Amino acid sequence: MSRINAQRLMADLRSLAEFGKFGTGVDRISFSPADLEARAWLLSRMREAGLDAAIDSVGNVRGVTKNASRAVVIGSHTDSVPKGGWLDGAMGVVYGLEIARSRLESGRAARLGVDVVSFQDEEGSYFPCLGSRSFCGELTEEDLGRTRTATGESIREAIARAGYAGGAPWCLDRARHVAFLEAHIEQGPRLEAEKSRIGVVTGIVGIRRLKITSAGQADHAGTTPMTMRKDAVRPLLELGHRVHAEFPGLSSLDTVWNIGSLLIQPGAANVVPSSAEMILEWRDTSVEKLDQIEATLMSWISDLNRQPGVELTSTPIARIRPTLMAEPLQTAIEASARAERARLMRMPSGAGHDAMVVGHHLPAGMIFIPSIGGRSHDIVEDTSEEDIVLGCEVMAGVVDGLEAV
After folding, report:
1. Which terminus of the chain has a smaller tally of CB atoms within 10 A, N or C?
2. Where in the chain is the domain with CATH 3.30.70.360?
3. pLDDT digits 0-9 by tens, 315-330
């Protein structure tokens, strides 16, 4: 017997995708007109469902189940990257809306409510996971004054422009909230490749990002002998080669790394590079593994600096801690997926989500469903309707199972 209304679920998802529609995707940057319109629409849908709904002081849209002393928080985000996909984040919010609405209709909400949330600015147009940080009490006055846009607008200014200033933030209630659940498309190819329909997220990776700069000396590339050059790019290329050659032996099966930026100055074919910069990132759910890789990198940089003419410096530019999902919720997701006869697999999330913030304050669980072709953060992002509905049914089953906890 279905716990949700699949037709209504899909209708809400497609209605939400009209706000900021761009081709087959959406362009719904946080605090943009499309984002504000989507939040107003969601607010009305929550109220129509019978939830106590409001938009808080940072733009979080929340719908609280009335007359319930205990509740599960279900949600994600409805802002997008530029020219992004229609399901990224939005699906997790609409799951929460549909499950809360269905439980109210069935008379089960009083036993365990569902509080639905669309967190503001998960994608970080102003400040990554702004809304979930606010919900968890991690947002500071200094954060609100930060400027993160090309126009120079701060978070505080964006809040005032949106008309959200003056309200109160919606905050985690430890006496009420028993868990946080988030559903998301996988944003990668593993589920599809394994022919699995449900991903049970074990944890969200920590991220280390390092900027490595190299100082050299600009000289004529045609007249300066190779043995007399101070070439800024050479040690970075040597380091990059060592990363790709030796990281596999240092890493776990789930470790990933990337050299995503390499800048060379003055950037001319006939000039020896005077400076160069490389940004290296690595991700894993284990702090110990992240630390081991970092220590090895530092030793490699020290080795290179002992060579004549090499001057490398390193600067950490991101240190995001891993977040493990609550084991009882992983077990509950598995049980619900098996009840739906869905093939499943346990897997880490290589991308960040609001659950990585909330999971340090509440027991958190995440469900992934397959991304067609592994595509995401692009207008081609898509997932079959059958998988979308299945994921919502599985999450609804988890909520049913938490009633007795």
Report:
1. N
2. 206-320
3. 998 899 999 999 999 9
